[in-house]
Specification:
It contains two helices and eight strands, in the order αβββββαβββ. It is of the alpha+beta class. The protein has a single domain, classed as Beta Barrel (Barwin-like endoglucanases), CATH 2.40.40. The strands form two sheets. It has a six-stranded mixed β-barrel. The chain is globular. Keywords: Signal.
Amino acid sequence: MKKILATLAACALALATATAAEAAPRQTMTTTYVTGYSMQDNDPAGSRAIAYSQLWGFKTRHQQAGGDGTYANPITLAVSPGRYAPGTRIYMPHVDRFFVVEDSCASCGAKSSWVDMYVGGTMSDPTSKVDACMAQLTGNYRMVVNPTRYHKVVKGPLYNSRTDTCAKVTVRG
């Protein structure tokens, strides 16, 4: 009897593992046009409101735009509606941070592949510095959709309000 139970348990474990592997989304690499947004140009302006908040039952990480770029606390990412499902995790090697789809981006539909990273900041930050940061981070970059957790991470917002500094682009195009 013990042998039969052990065999059944082993079969159940193998089946569960195979099913989980099939259900897990595959990691894929793609190139996309990347821009940034902040509280200053969010909709509504001056807020950290997001389209796919946990408050409304979406399987996302935050109630408002934020995150520190780690796998456990990815930064908010805006995409054109329907491009990626809310809650999709993305890794951006050019800034060494993880992101999660939590917001929509109306202008992102202007290009076939465009995402908008939440850079952070506050309303009291110098607009010129935040805008310069967003411009510095704009371009065509590779990104990993449904990444594993094993990527290099530089923890923190893309724009640091305390130091008025912007994240460095670590990998070009």
